[in-house]
Amino acid sequence: MGNALSKISMIAEAFFGGFYFSITRGLFIPMLAYSGYPVRDISLVLIPTALGGILVSSIVYKDPKFFESEFKRLMISSHVLERFMWFLLPFLLSSPSLLSLAYMLANISAALTGILIGAAVYSMFSGDEVIEVSIHRSAASSLSSLLGSLVMTYVSAIYEAPSSYYLLYLTALLVGLSGSLLLMMTPIPRSISEPRSSVVEEVRIRSGTALLILSLMFAGSNMLGISWSPLLRELGAPVYVTVALTITGNVGGILGSYIWRGYKAYIIAMLLNSLLTAAIPFITLPTYHIAVSLLTSLTFLGVNLLGMHIFSEVNERIGRIRASAYLVSSNYIGLLAASLISIFPQSSFQNLILAGSIKLLSTVIALLTIQEAAIVPAKRAYEISKLIYSTSLLGYSFTLQASRELLKTFISALALTTLLLMLYILYRVAIALTGV
Fold first, then answer.
1. Number of domains present in the structure of the chain
2. Residue range 65-82, pLDDT digits in tens
């Protein structure tokens, strides 16, 4: 009975989170695009966020002990903080630098929340239960995201910006905090204990290869998110058409949660998603994009389930927090790659073609390395995985070092700015007191 209640609680949390996520994330890029931000500026807003998410995931992965003793308390604190940080974003549209900073902090807290929520699922359930709960959480999230999208579309059509942005983000905050309250009442372990033994090579290679596959798919997905709204704007589509993409996307998410089963099905979904993404720039009628959104979301669920399936199998070997950190970091690595590529001056059309190509590359790697569905013998698939893992590890190490250097630079700049501001305030106070 207790286990059933835990499942219901975690699924209900995903329901509240889906509504909140649908509005805060679904509206963010269109909000920037229709506020006059070009693709390059949107990318510049995203880069510090991606680096911050990668850094947080790496810190959690390398030293999960800090989160073990106060696991539930830290998870709920991060859950609440994330929702308040996202609420601030529409109020900072006039200042790209402040918006980028707030967006980075919001995503850092979101990264930590995602890692701890994933670890909670791995801690509370085992084996097939993890997949079952994940499927139901995904469906519940998509269903509430659909409701959130309907609200978002209605408010966007009735109210002018930025009033519509303020109202929607406030609504998302209140619903999101309902999920936080539910987590407080859920029997999540107050503390957890992770394995201390070293990870065997086979598990490291499988996890690392999965990280690369997911990162490439998320890179393509984020490039799609960055470029789709500007493309629709170029086609003359009104803002409610852009928002309506989220509605059909969530319908696809609900259906996709129950369609894809097993590794072969996951890779078929990846292939279909890659081809659909590459086809988007050739569709010139804005209303057709609404239907395509349903299909891309339906097929992308296979990607999410692939990651969840792999890490549900290895979490006992590498630790629940670390397995969850792998999953979350793949999204931020993908976001970083998409942002860096989108900085270079190129059209939305070119970006979308490139997004489809990156997703197709990920699918090819999956076909060569996921032993359960590989088109080559299992032994050969492992050898290819080992080669790819060794190569991609170098790139990840470089990215991590860049994240650390950026964070040091950011802290130094923030300290200097604070010092100058204090000196200026003291100067103004001295002027006022002396009457000069």
1. 1
2. 888 888 999 999 999 999
**Structure tokens belonging to residue 322:** 């670390």
Q: Which long-range CB contacts under 8 A does 183-186 form with residues at least 24 apart?
A: 183/9, 183/13, 183/75, 183/76, 183/79, 184/76, 185/9, 186/6, 186/9, 186/10, 186/13
- 55 in a structural domain: yes
Of 339, 328, 404, 411, which is closest to residue 55 (Cα–Cα)?
404
Per-residue b or e along 328-357, where b marks 16 or more CB atoms closer than 10 Å to that residue's CB: bbbbbbbbbbbbebbbeeeebeebbbbbbe
Cβ partners under 8 Å of residue 227, min gap 6? 39, 342, 348, 351, 352, 355
3-state secondary structure of 174: helix
Residue numbers of the domain that contains 95: 2-192+199-400
Question: Is there a domain that residue 435 lies in?
Answer: no
Closest CA to 371 of 136, 140, 155, 205: 205
With respect to residue 92, please indicate whether it lies within any of the assigned structural domains.
yes
Q: Is residue 303 part of a domain?
A: yes
Residue 85 to residue 221: CA distance in whole angstroms: 24
DSSP assignments along 339-360, one per residue: HHHHHSS--HHHHHHHHHHHHH
Q: Give pLDDT, residue 195.
A: 67
Residue 408 confidence (pLDDT): 52
| Nearest alpha carbon to residue 96 among 30, 32, 165, 29 | 32
Secondary structure letter of residue 325 according to DSSP: H
Q: CA 121, 49, 21, 172: dihedral to nearest 10 degrees? A: 120
**Burial bucket for residue 206 (CB in 10 Å: 0-12, 13-18, 19+):** buried
- The CATH number linked to 291 is 1.20.1250.20
How far is 116 from 122, CA to CA, in rounded Å?
A: 10
This prediction's pTM: 0.78
Is residue 402 left, alpha or beta, with left meaning phi > 0 and alpha meaning psi from -120 to 50? alpha
The amino acid that residue 209 corresponds to is T
Q: Mean pLDDT over residues 337-341, rounded?
A: 80
